[in-house]
């Protein structure tokens, strides 16, 4: 009994525990898994029902015993398990009563673990009870009329429904679980030939693709790269996701992932298309391992390992951690460095805007000046909007230049970085969030100055605006400047 209570502390989240249950369903050939969350206070329950091949009496008894499989035994290439512990440890981490009912070839079986009953009779041995607990018979009725399938029932969920826990908390939990499962099983759920259908309280779970496959604004993906090992082939494909400016507000929110953009950067380790590790840099980066940083948040790398790699990659019972072998670290580091640098350039593109048509450089307001002590940021007096003021200032020009110098010397760099780190988002710039009228007003003033003071034609002024920061982001607006409509 002490061992069973100890196993409850392995650190599963509810989503990770349910993912372990679903792994068993997939291994049993299930194409549909239904999760149902029923709120009833301390009597709340969760059921997981699949349409897999089911188990006979002997198979069920083996599945319900701890460590029923040797992790060193050979397995099917599509098997998602390893230790023979997932069903029990995952369930005990969330509940005190675990019931498994199954049908195979029309023959039904049902066994249950009940930690409270075991605790009440500590000298009775490790007993598996036949059938559901008294009063729980309706909760396994989902198997009625089926020729095959398995149902897992969690009751007495003391690790979930704690003191002060409410129905609102329970519904929030359902949303969190859905996000987790949408990510973990996204490769099994997506596409016209999806291998799996997941439903939570009758609603289908939509897959969450970390790599935004097929998005038109995605700047770069590498070709898949293979590396042969003693335990099979490891495949890696690197991705850099679009900058926020290339996404709608809904796309930006949807693709952040369950933990947000910064936390979701890094490696995504898969085994048989099932996600094990979602983000992070696997301890790579040398003596000072890479951290999750804002500047690299657009980097996501897909890494596929065979299910024969568990020992070499130190996959844990919860299937939540992986550590690359020493022999692969140089290869992974080299490819990750390239991806991180590409992601950094995309993330910081406002500081180095994409050239205008014809590869003409963009005229930027801020220039970087590198000195021995580091870097300084200077306002470019040749920028059209700045030069327009200076050339029209007359006797006030020295005062205007003094104002510009004060702005240069008081740029709140540290505050900007602090706000970015705390809010996990870069400050809004380039008229972002401003109404269109504000952009039009500023652009019109500068456009008219180019024509009236500099004597440019309408087309020449438009070309100048099209290569001036930040107006190069508004080609439609620039094309309409000077129009009589």
Give a description of the structure.
- The chain is α+β, with helices and mostly antiparallel strands and 485 residues long.
- It has three domains: 2-204, Histidine kinase-like ATPase, C-terminal domain (Heat Shock Protein 90, 2-Layer Sandwich), CATH 3.30.565; 220-347, Ribosomal Protein S5, domain 2, CATH 3.30.230; 357-480, no CATH class.
- The protein is built from 16 helices and 16 strands.
- The protein has helices at 2-7, 14-27, 57-64, 86-92, 115-120, 167-184, 186-189, 249-254, 310-313, 329-347, 384-392, 397-409, 413-423, 436-452, 458-466, 475-480; strands at residues 32-38, 45-50, 97-104, 107-114, 129-130, 148-155, 197-200, 203-204, 220-221, 225-229, 232-240, 266-271, 274-278, 299-305, 366-371, 374-379.
- The strands form three sheets. Strands 5-4-3-6-2-1-7-8 form an eight-stranded mixed sheet. Strands 9, 10, 11, 12, 13 and 14 form a six-stranded mixed sheet that branches.
- α14 (436-452) crosses α15.
- The longest helix is centred in the C-terminal third of the chain and has 19 residues, at 329-347.
- It is elongated and about 100 Å long.
- The N and C termini lie far apart (82 Å).
């Amino acid at each position: 009994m002490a061992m069973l209570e100890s196993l409850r502390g392995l650190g599963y989240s509810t989503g990770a525990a349910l993912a372990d249950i679903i792994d068993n369903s997939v291994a049993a050939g299930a194409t549909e898994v239904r999760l149902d969350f029923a709120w009833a206070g301390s009597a709340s329950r969760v059921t997981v029902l699949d349409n897999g091949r089911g188990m006979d009496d002997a198979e069920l008894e083996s599945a319900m015993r701890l460590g029923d499989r040797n992790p060193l035994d050979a397995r099917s290439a599509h098997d998602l398990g390893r230790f023979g512990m997932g069903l029990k440890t995952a369930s005990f981490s969330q509940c005190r009563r675990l019931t498994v009912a199954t049908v195979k070839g029309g023959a039904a079986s049902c066994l249950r673990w009940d930690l409270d009953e075991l605790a009440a009779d500590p000298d009775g041995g490790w007993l598996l009870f036949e059938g559901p607990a008294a009063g729980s018979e309706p909760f396994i009725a989902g198997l009625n009329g089926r020729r095959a399938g398995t149902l897992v029932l969690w009751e007495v969920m003391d690790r979930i429904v704690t003191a002060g826990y409410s129905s609102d908390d329970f519904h929030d939990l359902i949303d969190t679980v859905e996000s987790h499962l949408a990510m973990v099983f996204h490769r099994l759920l997506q596409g016209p030939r999806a291998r799996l259908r997941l439903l939570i309280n009758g609603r289908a779970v939509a897959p969450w693709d970390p790599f935004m496959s097929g998005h038109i604004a995605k700047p770069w993906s590498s070709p898949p790269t293979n590396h042969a090992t003693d335990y099979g082939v490891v495949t890696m494909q690197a991705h850099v996701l679009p900058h926020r400016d290339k996404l709608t507000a809904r796309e930006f929110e949807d693709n952040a992932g369950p933990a947000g953009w910064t936390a979701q950067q890094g490696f995504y380790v898969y085994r048989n298309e099932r996600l094990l590790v979602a983000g992070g840099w696997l301890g790579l980066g040398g003596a000072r391992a890479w951290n999750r940083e804002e500047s690299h948040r657009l980097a996501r790398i897909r890494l596929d390992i065979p299910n024969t790699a568990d020992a070499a990659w130190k996959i844990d019972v919860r299937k939540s951690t992986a550590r690359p072998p020493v022999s692969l670290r140089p290869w992974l580091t080299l490819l990750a460095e390239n991806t991180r640098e590409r992601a950094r350039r995309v993330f910081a593109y406002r500081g180095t805007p994409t050239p205008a048509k014809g590869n003409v450089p963009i005229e930027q307001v801020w220039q970087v000046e590198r000195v021995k002590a580091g870097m300084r940021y200077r306002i470019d007096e040749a920028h059209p909007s700045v030069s327009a003021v200076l050339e029209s200032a007359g006797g006030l020009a020295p005062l205007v230049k003094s104002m510009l110098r004060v702005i240069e010397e008081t740029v709140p760099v540290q505050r900007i970085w602090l706000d970015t780190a705390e809010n996990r988002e870069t400050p809004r710039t380039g008229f972002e969030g401003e109404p269109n009228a504000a952009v039009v007003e500023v652009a019109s003033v500068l456009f008219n100055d180019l024509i009236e003071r500099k004597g440019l034609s309408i087309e020449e002024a438009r070309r100048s605006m099209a290569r001036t920061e930040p107006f190069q982001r508004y080609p439609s607006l620039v094309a309409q400047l000077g129009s009589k409509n």
